[in-house]
Amino acid sequence: MLSDLNYKHLHYFWAVARAGSVTAAARQLGMTAQTVSGQISRLEQHIGRALFTQQGRGLVLTEAGRMALGYADRIFQLGEELQEMLADEQLDHTLRLSSGISDVLPKSIAYRLLQPALALPQRVRLHCNEGTFDQLLHELSSHSLDLVLADRPAPAAAQQTLQSYLLARCPVMIFATPALAERYQPGFPHSLQRAPLLLPSRDNVLRGQLEHWLEERGIRPDIVGEFKDGALLHTFGEQGAGLFPAPAFAASDITGNGKLCLLGLVEGVEEQYYAIANRRKLQHKAVQAIIQHADSE
């Protein structure tokens, strides 16, 4: 039965899969290769499946081995986190906040939104995990996260278990290198006609707003790039690949080094930033601090 799984054997398997060979894993474990190989054989006998297959002089994972490795990664990484947490001398005086950051949210904005929790008088241990909106909501629903920061509220189907809070609104601006700004700033926004434009990918709420804004004004830019990662979009913009949108909150950071300048305001378009929490965790002090700070502004 699975409940009888020997986790020491599983750890030897994990070590071999990560090291790439029995010899390398044995060296890391301070054991003989014969001992490690024997422990893995026992694990394979117990579960009734081969985890490795011989390929030339090396070992490769079978399909069962690949699946087992995924679970082993999570098991032993959680074990390492547990050891680290229990070794913390200030554990009893520490407030832990596990937050999920939507991969479309600008990093500087995420910091601003989490700042009220970090300002609490109690010591806060922050754990941030970046992912897709759907992935993070799944982790929030399963109580793996205390909070998710995103550019949209939880969908209606999830509102029985999840609560969304609007934390901030922010105008959107268009930025460019000085050379591009000199060419396209006169006559903005109609100067964007056929201008090279970098946009966030279609899973970003801002993308739809920008397309609607352009369509309303009859502007058809030349979309030269689409980016899921906002930092990558910024990098391409800084190198002069095209004009690009960004929240006004980040304007000083974007223009501070002189490589980029403000082209103009995208009037009527704004980004919205939400905190989403599991209704069972609304009493978490750090979650309350983030929500209450937004209410006070």
From TrEMBL:
Pfam families per UniProt:
HTH_1, LysR_substrate
- Give the HTH lysR-type domain ranges: 5-62
Do you know which InterPro entries this protein is assigned to? LysR_HTH_N (IPR000847), LysR_subst-bd (IPR005119), WH-like_DNA-bd_sf (IPR036388), WH_DNA-bd_sf (IPR036390)
Q: Which domain of life is it from?
A: Bacteria
Listed A to Z, the keywords are: Activator, DNA-binding, Transcription, Transcription regulation
What molecular function does GO assign, one term? DNA binding
Keyword NADP part of the UniProt annotation = no
Q: Which GO terms describe its biological process?
A: regulation of DNA-templated transcription initiation
Family, similarity comment: Belongs to the LysR transcriptional regulatory family.
Q: What protein does this entry describe?
A: Transcriptional activator NhaR
